[in-house]
Amino acid sequence: MLELSILGFLYDAPLHGYELRKRITALTGHVRPVAESTLYPAIKRLENAGLLVRTTEPGAAAAPRHVLSLTEEGRRELRRRLAEPGDRDVTDENRWFTLLAFLRHLDDAEAQAAVLRRRLAFLEEPASFFYDGDRPLRAEELDDPFRQGMLTIARATSRAELTWLRGTLRSLGG
Predict the structure, then answer these.
(1) CATH fold label, 1-81
(2) Which residues neighbour 63 within 8 Å (Cβ) at sequence distance 6 or greater?
(3) Number of H helices and number of E strands within the chain?
């Protein structure tokens, strides 16, 4: 997801590494902080793969600054990753939000709708955090108020997302 975030933010505009890190942290930092020790190796991998380029600009006060830009190959790779997300990208909430943050860069409404339909199918499957054998438990069936809270919040979130997904799919013609 780090690489997807890098490609997604650079799709909009070239950025300095510091600014890129700030944007990624704002998107995912509450879940997984972005350390320089992970960001810069990921940038280097993408650069070595020909997906982005680094240019040098004079610094405002001191040292020169590196500006990162996507190559045309990087733009194609982002669109490919958006059109063909892995199962975890659709089922894991944090990965899903990262994917969703950049789905607008996929220009084809039908391709966008296909991704949304995968998420919709996942959310429509009965699920719970807690089970009685193979049967998912509902909040009302639990004595533990904290677990009830988890399920109540998850159900409300899922309902809101289902409503949004269905409406967005209608607007995309899907």
Answers:
(1) Arc Repressor Mutant, subunit A (1.10.10)
(2) none
(3) 8, 5
Distance between CA 164 and CA 43 in Å, rounded? 33
Residues 6+ apart with CB under 8 A from 101: 5, 8, 27
Q: SS3 for 24?
A: helix
| Cα–Cα distance for residue pair 14/55, rounded to 1 Å | 10
Distance (Å, whole) CA 114 – CA 173? 11
Question: Kind of pairing, strands 131-132 and 65-70?
Answer: unpaired
Q: Phi and psi for 67 in degrees, rounded to 5?
A: -110, 130
Please return the burial class of 162, using the count of CB atoms within 10 Å of its CB with bins 0-12, 13-18 and 19+. middle
Q: Measured on CA atoms in the order 77, 104, 33, 25, is the torsion positive or negative?
A: positive
Task: Read off the pLDDT of residues 8-18 as tens digits, 9 standing for 90 and up.
Answer: 999 999 998 88
Residue 31 pLDDT exceeds 70: no
- Which residue matches tokens 């600054």? 65
* pLDDT, tens digit, 9 for 90 and up, residues 36-48: 778 889 999 999 9
Q: Looking up tokens 């780090």, which residue turns up?
A: 2
| 3-state helix vs strand vs coil in the chain, percent to 5 | 65, 10, 25
